[in-house]
Amino acid sequence: xxxxxxxxxxxxxxxxxxxxxxxxxxxxxxxxxxxxxxxxxxxxxxxxxxxxxxxxxxxxxxxxxxxxxxxxxxxxxxxxxxxxxxxxxxxxxxxxxxxxxxxxxxxxxxxxxxxxxxxxxxxxxxxxxxxxxxxxxxxxxxxxxxxxxxxxxxxxxxxxxxxxxxxxxxxxxxxxxxxxxxxxxxxxxxxxxxxxxxxxxxxxxxxxxxxxxxxxxxxxxxxxxxxxxxxxxxxxxxxxxxxxxxxx
Length: 248
Description:
Blueprint: E1 9-13, H1 18-29, E2 33-38, H2 41-54, E3 59-63, H3 69-83, E4 88-91, H4 102-130, E5 132-137, H5 150-170, E6 175-182, H6 191-198, H7 200-209, H8 218-229, E7 240-243
Parallel strand pairs: 1-2, 1-4, 2-3, 4-5, 5-6, 6-7
Helix pairs in contact: 1-2, 1-8, 3-4, 4-5, 6-7
């Protein structure tokens, strides 16, 4: 199946590392104009360089604190200006609020929930012009109990529900909304890489439960995100696809 995004404008909120970076690179490789944002300037610059190295389209990046509503609106407007509009929005950012306390819940609500809501609002005037797609990145934790990370799991569950609601709201505007729920995804510097080094008992416990004998890769999540945003999924909306190697 040939998925071609030539001439399409894609915004990846939270696109400097891991899954977001792989999604941005995959869209770029498929011909899209791509804008990414993140809070960390160093990782953002590195991701932008990687995008420019293989891109045939426009590349744009900007630092953005995705916990800040005004900053999100400014970034989305700048991205639309740089790319010439927005056809696809990918909401990938996460604060990884793990602790079951005020700080953990505030982090998860501020970034994992409100950033997708705010980015969607800001992007809607652009998406409405030609129809389009929104892809939220949730997590397997949103589909089952999350004892070690209650805020993270609960807010990812909220995004899965919001996906269904948004899909129903925006169908008349020819905008599709879907969600990807990754299981354990390993990449250098990521959560599972840190756990492998610092909490090996947790890493080995989860790895042992993966039926394929390994964790997933960011590229495997990116492939599903591209499918959901493409015309190949033109009659798919309101859905959440787990990318978890049968772990669920």
